[in-house]
Design a protein that fits this description.
The structure is a homodimer. Chain A is an alpha/beta fold and about 230 residues long. The first copy, chain A, is about 20% helix and about 25% strand. The first copy, chain A, is built from six helices and 14 strands. In chain A, helix 3 packs across helix 5. The C terminus of chain A is likely disordered.
Chain lengths: ~230, ~230
């Protein structure tokens, strides 16, 4: 199995490939790096079957639609995603194949209603539900700290402790964690009751992202010029 | 036949490929997206034989010279193009092969003296001569509305009605049109006499593009660092 993060920054985009069949998927591409993703896929000889957005992003514009068009792949989002240009909607428990890899979908609402995590062969791409040492904020429209608590504690924390956690963001230079480590050390959620977690999340008082309104449009909605 | 627009914006760059031989051409590349074009070509296994500039561009810097150098392709422009680094000049009626595809050239002066359109297998890349619902402005140096009228009405409009029109620009979100549709609905030229068209084009009163002077240099002139 091939996994590589391609942005080298705070927003993380993963190329996930099956070494034996050279089929691959791209997870959470940024609009400004689409050429890079296709270049890296081509360099390693991968063909992209699926482009995933793990949720509707508020902090960057998605490159899913552009990459899907240029690379002949399908855009996949969770069934609550409002994006009109999604090729395939998935929901909790669904499975998808990428070559010989078997991807299992977990619906993880809370940060947004359309959050999902993707689990494959001892690794889980957690989107903005579970971050390293934290969780995604729940104060945007449609956010729900109770739902997020349930998704993280009953779904993601039920995975084996050595499952590698690969989040959609990290602001402190971390690259990965494990489910076992997050269950014990995650400052936001480890050891908290549901009520306690909701109280914390409702009182974070975080500033809104720059240009929030523009970026919060449905992720895969192409710009006017490409419709 | 493979056709894909690669900028996803107002300026359009097309990758045109022969599926059977994996030979390809690139039409109107922008200087800022050269890596993306080569990535997409590599991803699909295409080798670039030709890079076309359909005319000397006033609104963006051409990436033709850069892509040609990096991808070992030839830069092709119409015979009136002043650019000193064109590998091959073509003129009305010329034909070029890209794998099993046969490209026919139409000289289409009017927007610039070196305008050309490229017709291949039921599709025509019209550059800035014929746009969707419009035509390219004719008020730059060397522009000529009468010549443009003749090129559009006697050459492009003589193609079969179902020929797909793929322009170099679109500012309203359109992706393609057909010759038949433009003959009837094109607001600038459909149903107009030559004199009427010249009068309209000479009185559009459009502002000049930002940084016009810098961008209007010969398209394929390399930067100082590559001379």
């Amino acid at each position: 199995m091939f996994i590589r993060e391609l942005n080298r920054g705070k927003c993380k985009t993963y190329l996930l490939g099956c070494d034996r069949t050279h089929r691959a998927a791209l997870i959470d591409p940024l609009k400004e790096n689409t050429g890079r993703y296709i270049a890296v896929a081509a360099y390693h000889g991968f063909r992209l079957d699926y482009i995933f957005d793990t949720h509707t992003h508020a902090d960057h514009r998605s490159g899913s639609w552009d990459v899907a068009e240029m690379a002949e792949a399908k855009v996949v989002m969770e069934r609550h995603a409002p994006a009109p240009h999604v090729s395939m909607h998935v929901t909790n428990g669904d499975e998808l194949e990428v070559g010989l890899l078997r991807l299992k979908i977990f619906s993880t609402p809370g940060h947004t209603p359309d959050g999902m995590a993707i689990c494959v062969d001892g690794h889980v791409f957690t989107g903005d539900a579970l971050l390293i040492g934290g969780t995604g904020r729940t104060d945007f429209t449609g956010g729900d700290p109770g739902q997020q608590y349930d998704a993280v504690t009953t779904k993601l924390f039920s995975l084996p402790d050595d499952t590698v956690v690969l989040p959609a963001h990290d602001y402190r230079g971390n690259q990965s964690s494990t489910v076992g480590k997050e269950k014990i050390t995650n400052a936001r959620i480890a050891g908290r009751s549901r009520d306690e977690y909701i109280r914390i999340m409702n009182n974070l008082g975080l500033p809104f992202p720059t240009r929030f309104r523009r970026r919060c449009r449905p992720t895969n909605r192409p710009s006017k010029t490409t419709r």
